[in-house]
Each structure stands twice: as structure tokens, then as C-alpha cells.
Amino acid sequence: MTQSSEREAIEPAMVALRCHLLSTSEVYFSSQPGPHSRTGWAGDGEGRVAVTRDADGSVAFTESGRFRPAAAPDTPPVSFRNVFRWTFLTDRVSLAHERRGAEAAVRLFDLAPGDTPGTWLSCHDHLCGDDRYRARLVVTPRGFDLRWTIEGPRKDEHLHYRYRGAAPASTG
């Protein structure tokens, strides 16, 4: 397959994912430690997502909400805020974390279309110290699910983000 025909094959998946990103308004997530986790970070969260589209075509998610640690279900939930940027490249989408601002963004991983329609997989593991981050994104009728796995000497974490919003407009 030529580079041009590869782009043509990927283009519908990119358009569909962009539509889902732009229609996102809510996030729900759960965190489960695996058997080798030393952090024990477990719980559930939910919040709102403010979506902005920048001139370069990237899409920024500003998430804010509440997280309830599983170890302390009777305590008040903890507030959270995250900023993630989705940048569309020729054959993949790059995800960065802008918690400390765009100038200090941490590029997490690139996602490319998987073997089944609506599935995106991390191209390479993201290394943070000795920890390896990888992800799988699956488009759903009302949004998308993003599952993260973090493994390392201290971490064995499994995060499941469910992004939801209005059903995206038809692209064709």
C-alpha cells in the first residue's frame, strides 16, 4: 500500500474519532491496582469535560470533577483537574498531558488504528522513569473508552476512562 492510499484508508477513522472528541462532555473513570501495585490507587471518578479546538487542529480536554478513593468510601470525594491534548498527525493521534501547561506538556503516547474498526492502540509504550504506559481506545456509539495500563517496579495500575457526550453528527 502506498503512503497516499494508507492515508486514505485511515482518514475515515480519524474523522470519526475527531467527531467523538469534539462531542465529549463527560468523563467517568475507575482505577484498579493490579497484584504488583505498591500504590494501591483504587476508586472511581466522574466529571465534566470542556472541549476546545485549536487553530492547529488539535483538541484539548479540560477535565474537572470528583474522585472517590475506594479505601475511604465514607470521606468526601477529592477534586481533580486534568488537561489532555489530542493532536492529529498523518497516520495517528498523539495524546499529551498538559497538567502544568502547554509549555510543559508530557507526551504520553501515539494511538494508531487497530485491527478492528473503531479501535486505536498505542504505537509504543510511554516511559516515565521505570514505568511503562500503554493504552487502547475503543469508539462507542456515544463516545469512547480509553483503557490505560501502567506497569513498573512500583506500579501495576489499570485505568478505565469512559468519555461520553451527545452522539456525534454524521460525517457522510
From TrEMBL:
> Where's the DUF6314 domain?
39-164
| Highest taxon of source | Bacteria
Cross-referenced Pfam families: DUF6314
This one is known as: DUF6314 domain-containing protein
Q: Which organism is it from?
A: Modicisalibacter tunisiensis
* Organism placement in taxonomy: Bacteria, Pseudomonadati, Pseudomonadota, Gammaproteobacteria, Oceanospirillales
